């Protein structure tokens, strides 16, 4: 058969154009392409050249918008993009997907086994809590590293990172019940997650885009994990209720086996789902940020009002400060997600103003907390807890001030939105570095108290 | 002569079912057959045939299967089903009534009533 490179290229472009229509499935495309080729062959048989035959065939095919509208009327279900994890069609892609499923399941079970073994060896006390992240996150990282086909060198670096963290968490002679151990346990997951991020970026962790993708990945992962957890909770609840009526004790099996496997396994599976869906389903995290940004502003303002009325932060206890830190971290994630979802070329709008209000409210809360903390430190002296909290709040302050400044500049048309994005992605590793300091430097600094 | 678009749309289903009743075919061959039957008078928008075929398949009037063309491409063949034949018989009756009514009215229209002449 003679080849027609130009014609093939034209058909390829036509197919690519149609491919973007959600209502037209790949099978339909094959059908339409077969039709187009038949038409072209017939036109050529009547003496037209490739170009003319193609044009006639395209013309006869009709207006593609109208055709795809017609397809959409017949297949409205296709407008709801379906997440196809393992495509039915055989072929290379199908085999790859099955292999991926096998890897994911193996890693999920591996994470479950590790957690189960950890529970047996470490008990369910402090030692397990310190190591919990270390037992699970390497498996998520392994999946991402496998997916990105990272180099052996990078894999070795990641492995070394995990090993070093394991040594610090377990070899330090923490005094029992001391705060440095708790702080290390709290901050270790941040470092671990950063290592996962390096695997996610496939080693290109310097790239702003990859960092932003990792932020998006984290948000979607949280949502998918929550969905899986909800489904699992419903199943467990029903089983529990049913077995209770029969008189069987479900608790040992639940605590000993089901949860140790389900909780870490679901994280690996959620990571897989987020990777698989990436381009299939709209990301929902950014939409949620739109809903929650105004609500969070209301919450922050209400908190500020109540706390001011109650006499400021100076009187309040440590528990509230920790809670407020958690709230500020939430605000920060909201901010990150709305920034990650925003079209950086769009003009400033109402939502950007709302975002600035959110930043200002968070700044007010942060400033009030910092004042309270400094007052406490001046009054009672330093402690590992106070210094760790102070450090985190200072980091947040710098992050928020610069974010607010750049948002203002963007709203006034002085700066591109890209500057704001750039600031977020540049600043993220600072949190990881701080967490590493708390894990590695704090315990010896405060004599493992 | 161009056939009005609404008329093409209305006749599409019985025409496709009728053509498939003659034998199994794939999309492009159906279009060619339509053109042949109407002496080139009915030019369908080719792309519109496929949503129609899919609708008929969903209704259970036709069934489809993938085969390969002589040049080795994937090609979908359509076969009329028993309920498709029933639907076709039903449509044929309807069209017969419509065609009969039209024929009668046109025969009487060929002899213009005297009143119309009075107006002219």
Question: Could you characterize the architecture of this molecule?
Answer:
- The complex is a heterodimer of chains A (449) and B (120).
- With 449 residues, chain A is mostly helical.
- Chain A folds into three domains: 5-79; 96-277, no CATH class; 285-445, no CATH class.
- Chain A has helices at residues 5-19, 26-45, 50-61, 64-74, 92-122, 126-148, 152-171, 179-200, 208-246, 251-277, 285-309, 318-341, 350-380, 384-411, 417-440, 442-445.
- The mean pLDDT of chain A is 85.
- Chain B has a single domain, classed as Winged helix-like DNA-binding domain superfamily/Winged helix DNA-binding domain (Arc Repressor Mutant, subunit A).
- Chain B contains five helices and three strands; from the N terminus they run H-E-H-H-E-E-H-H.
- Chain B has helices at 5-22, 27-37, 46-59, 82-110, 114-119; strands at 25-26, 62-68, 74-80.
- In chain B, strands 1-3-2 form a three-stranded antiparallel sheet.
- The chains are: A mainly alpha (449), B alpha+beta (120).
List the helices and strands and how they pair.
The complex is a heterodimer of chains A (449) and B (120).
Chain A: H1 5-19, H2 26-45, H3 50-61, H4 64-74, H5 92-122, H6 126-148, H7 152-171, H8 179-200, H9 208-246, H10 251-277, H11 285-309, H12 318-341, H13 350-380, H14 384-411, H15 417-440, H16 442-445
Chain B: H1 5-22, E1 25-26, H2 27-37, H3 46-59, E2 62-68, E3 74-80, H4 82-110, H5 114-119
Antiparallel strand pairs in B: 1-3, 2-3
Low-confidence stretches of chain B: 116-120
Most extensive interface:
A-B, 25 and 21 residues
- Major sheet details of chain B: 3 strands, antiparallel
- The oligomeric state is heterodimer
| Continuous helix count of chain B | 5
Unreliable stretches of chain A? none
The number of distinct structural domains of chain B comes to 1
User: How many helices of chain A in DSSP terms?
Assistant: 16
Structural class of chain B: alpha+beta
- End-to-end gap of chain B: 29 Å
Binned, the helix content of chain B reads 55-70%
Keywords (chain A): Membrane, Transmembrane, Transmembrane helix
Transmembrane segments (chain A): 101-122, 128-146, 153-172, 184-201, 222-245, 257-274, 295-314, 320-341, 353-375, 387-408, 428-448
Protein name (chain A): DUF4153 domain-containing protein
Domain Transcription regulator PadR N-terminal (chain B): 16-89
């Amino acid at each position: 058969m003679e080849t027609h490179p130009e014609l093939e290229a034209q058909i390829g472009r036509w197919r690519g154009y149609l491919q973007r229509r959600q209502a037209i499935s790949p099978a339909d495309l094959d059908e339409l392409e077969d039709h187009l080729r038949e038409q072209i062959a017939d036109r050529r048989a009547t003496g037209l050249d490739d170009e003319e035959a193609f044009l006639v065939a395209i013309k006869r095919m009709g207006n593609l918008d109208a055709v795809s509208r017609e397809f959409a009327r017949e297949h409205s279900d296709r407008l709801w993009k379906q997440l196809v994890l393992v495509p039915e069609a055989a072929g290379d892609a199908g085999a790859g997907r099955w292999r991926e499923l096998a890897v994911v399941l193996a890693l999920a079970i591996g994470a479950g086994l590790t957690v189960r073994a950890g529970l047996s060896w470490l008990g369910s006390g402090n030692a397990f809590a310190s190591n919990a992240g270390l037992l699970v996150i390497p498996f998520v990282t392994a999946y991402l590293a496998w997916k990105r086909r990272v180099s052996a060198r990078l894999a070795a670096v990641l492995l070394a990172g995990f090993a070093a963290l394991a040594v610090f968490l377990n070899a330090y002679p923490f005094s029992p019940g001391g705060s440095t151990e708790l702080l290390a346990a709290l901050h270790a997951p941040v470092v671990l997650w950063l290592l996962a991020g390096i695997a996610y970026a496939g080693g290109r962790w310097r790239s702003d885009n990859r960092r932003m993708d990792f932020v998006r990945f984290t948000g979607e992962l949280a949502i998918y994990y929550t969905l899986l957890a909800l489904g699992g909770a419903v199943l467990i609840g029903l089983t529990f209720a049913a077995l209770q009526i029969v008189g069987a004790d479900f608790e040992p099996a639940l605590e000993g086996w089901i949860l140790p496997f389900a909780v870490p396994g679901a994280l690996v599976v959620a990571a897989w789902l987020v990777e698989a869906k990436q381009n299939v389903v709209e990301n929902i995290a950014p939409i949620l940020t739109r809903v929650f940004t105004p609500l969070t502003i209301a919450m922050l303002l209400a908190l500020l009002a109540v706390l001011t009325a109650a006499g400021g932060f100076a009187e309040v206890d440590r528990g509230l400060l920790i809670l407020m830190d958690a709230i500020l971290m939430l605000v920060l994630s909201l901010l990150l997600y709305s920034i990650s979802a925003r079209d950086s070329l769009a003009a400033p709008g109402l939502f950007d103003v709302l975002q600035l209000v959110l930043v200002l409210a968070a700044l007010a809360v942060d400033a009030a907390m910092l004042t309270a903390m400094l007052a406490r430190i001046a009054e009672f002296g330093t402690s590992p807890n106070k210094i760790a909290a102070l450090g985190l709040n200072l980091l947040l302050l710098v992050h928020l001030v610069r974010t607010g400044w750049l948002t203002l500049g963007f709203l006034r048309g002085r700066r591109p939105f890209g500057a704001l994005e750039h600031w977020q992605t540049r600043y993220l590793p600072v949190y990881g570095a701080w967490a590493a300091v708390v894990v590695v430097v704090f315990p010896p600094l405060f004599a493992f108290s | 002569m161009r056939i009005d678009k609404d008329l093409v749309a209305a006749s599409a289903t019985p025409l496709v079912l009728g053509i498939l009743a003659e034998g199994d075919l794939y999309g492009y061959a159906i279009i060619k057959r339509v053109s042949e039957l109407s002496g080139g008078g009915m030019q369908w928008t080719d792309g519109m045939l496929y949503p129609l075929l899919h609708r008929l398949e969903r209704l259970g009037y036709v069934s489809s299967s993938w085969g390969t063309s002589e040049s080795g491409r994937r090609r979908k063949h359509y076969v009329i089903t028993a309920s498709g034949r029933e639907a076709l018989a039903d449509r044929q009756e309807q069209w017969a009534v419509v065609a009969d009514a039209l024929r009668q009215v046109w025969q009487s229209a060929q002899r213009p009533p005297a009143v119309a002449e009075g107006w002219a």
